[in-house]
Amino acid sequence: MATALILVRRALRLATIIAASETPDAATIQDALSVLNSILAEMHDAGIGIPDYSVANEASTLTMGDGDVEAVAYQLAARIMPEYGMEIPPTVAAGAADSMSRLRAKYFQPGKSDLGELPVATGWGYGWNVESGSY
Question: 62 with 52: CB under 8 angstroms?
Fold first, then answer.
């Protein structure tokens, strides 16, 4: 299982904010965790059923799978780049779009419709009943 720090470091590398061998400073980690929590909350509100809806700190263990971690890392990279005055390169934009599509497809949960409020057809027709003179 990955930790929040692993996800944050992956996103920061994708965003070219840190190099592969670099460790982000505490302020950068906290900023990224704040954005990560916003992303996870938005996904929850959108009905994307990722098991993690927030992280407490960088040591938090994520219960989502590795593929989901990678997808969220792309989302985080795309979200934080403008905060550093950087434009999102096409590779990161495409990765973020593709990963979001995969997450939506993986966690799509069709809603249950309550049809009890719909009008019910009476008589033999669905409109005006000529025999009774009513609907």
Answer: yes
| Nearest to 58, CA basis, from 83, 93, 85, 32 | 32
Q: Give me the domains of the chain, ranges plus CATH numbers.
A: 4-112 (1.10.3230.20)
pTM for this structure? 0.79
Pick from 18, 50, 45, 44: nearest CA to 31: 18
Give the span between the Cα atoms of 28 and 11, in whole angstroms.
12
pLDDT digits (tens, 9 = 90+) for 88-125: 999 999 999 999 999 988 887 666 555 555 555 555 55
SS3 79: helix
